[in-house]
Amino acid sequence: MATTFRRARGQVENKLRDLGGFLPLYKAALEGQWNEARKFLDDDPEAFRAKITIASETALHIAVGTGENIDFVEKLIRSMSPEDLALIDQNGETALTVAAVVGNVKAAKLLVNKNPDLSNISGKQGLPVLRAANYGQEEMVKYLLAVTRGDIEPSPFAGESGAELLIAIITEEFFDIALELIELYPEMAAVEVNGKGSTLAALAHKTDIFCSGSSSTHWQLFFNPVGFIKRTTKERLKHAKALELVKALCREICELDDATAFSLFQKPLHRAAQLGIPEIIEEIVHAFPPVIWSSGEENRNVFQLAVMNRRENVFGLIYQMTNYKHLVTRYIDPNGNNILHLAGQLPSLDRLNLVSGAALQVQCELQWFQEVKKFVPPSQKEAKNKDGKTPKMVFRDAHQKLMKDGAQWMKTTATSCTVAAALIATVAFAAVIHAPEGNNREDPVTLSAFGVFAVTDAVSLFSSVTAILMFLSILTSRYSQEDFLYALPRGLIFGLSMLFISILTMMAAFAAAIILVFGRVKAVILIPLGGLAVLPVSLFVILPLLYQITMSTYGGIFPKQQPRDTRTLH
């Protein structure tokens, strides 16, 4: 082994020694110094074709790869023959492929104008247009598609090579280009690439290109309205193009025989269910209804996969089904689990952690279990799997640790809020005893301020005491499984709301006290003090906990959908 290594090292050293004479040409090509390159080429005309790097690149490869100095590239191409432009490096790539990778469109046009065959010369990793797509060079892809010939055999737009190109274009989200390709070469939709699947499967892996995967929130509109509008406009256009592409692919696949269409639809359908892309599922099922009954690995259908991966937007499609909705919930996997058993299992951490706080996670899991239970026939609600467990037993065992964490989270939150409410109650009670009298009791402003102070301080005291009692009830709860669904969240919502009211009225009482103390004497300081008083209230409103728990408890996690006559799942 040592001998082999020394031999290989010696070969590399010899090659580097041989390449040393081309160092001036290499530097000239890299820096775009045509005069220096011209001198070298005049002395050695064969240097045009010489491999001047250890990767067997020519001076043209180097110059094109910089993406700059187009004048140098133009003069070099003018001095070379069309055959010289087709010289390849150790990866079998011409200078056009290098230009495609770096996005040097100007150089690509110069190369193709002199040798049109370059666009159809494939390297070890494919044609230049495929390499451009893999590196996200959109303008280069558009140009190379226009100059790459499709009438030669084998056609670069047919079979696996065509499908691989379309998948690369879809991966980089060049949907306009993909739609044009599907229109010109519809057979691309029906080909599966080894290791990459079909073109429709490529779309089923990209969650963020559909409306269901959008991460935009209304808070972004509040803080950056201009940027939000620009971003959402761009996203909506992308979503529309992606959906249009899905429809086009579905139309082409439906032209095939039923067995082939079923096979091509099955994998994207199940992948979309796992990742939560209802748009793809709807289009596939409406294009080819029988596929809704397909089962993938471990005999699991679309809705079982949606339950396992906690994809409420996919499971919500069950509302669009007609009388068959109860049939799809009867599937049993190899372990004897029905869909309610699957709802009782713990999901992956990345899905579970989308909800903040262990208590809210338990609530979310209970909501899933209760929702799935609606569609399960009575005979399956108490059915046992191969481990001898009913769905309730599966849920209890799988969520035992999470419920302990939820109880601890609820206790910690309630304790912290109790301390805050107690401090506010203490301040509010002390403020009544030491109420400010004001500088001028006959002044209407002073009288109004005193009235505001009295009312807001009383409300602050009463609401903070109410919050304390509510948090104490949470601390003394038995923390049963059912309590996490409604009782504990509602108690926390009420307690946090009372705490918020106590903070709000305490700040109002503080502002009224400032007016009573300073009155009209130093009115100029009232404005900044009032602004500072609003700050803690604003921060409390922005905090997501109260909003999240309210939406989860009263809004639910499942979309409110009704069966639709025009687009009903079969």
UniProtKB/TrEMBL annotation:
ANK repeat segments run 91-123
What is any Pfam family matched here?
A: PGG
On the tree of life, the source organism's domain of life is Eukaryota
Membrane-crossing segments per the record = 413-435, 447-472, 492-518, 524-547
Q: Which residues form the PGG domain?
A: 408-516
* An annotated GO cellular component: membrane
Protein keywords? ANK repeat, Membrane, Transmembrane, Transmembrane helix
Coiled coil spans:
none
- This protein is called PGG domain-containing protein
Q: Which organism is it from?
A: Carnegiea gigantea
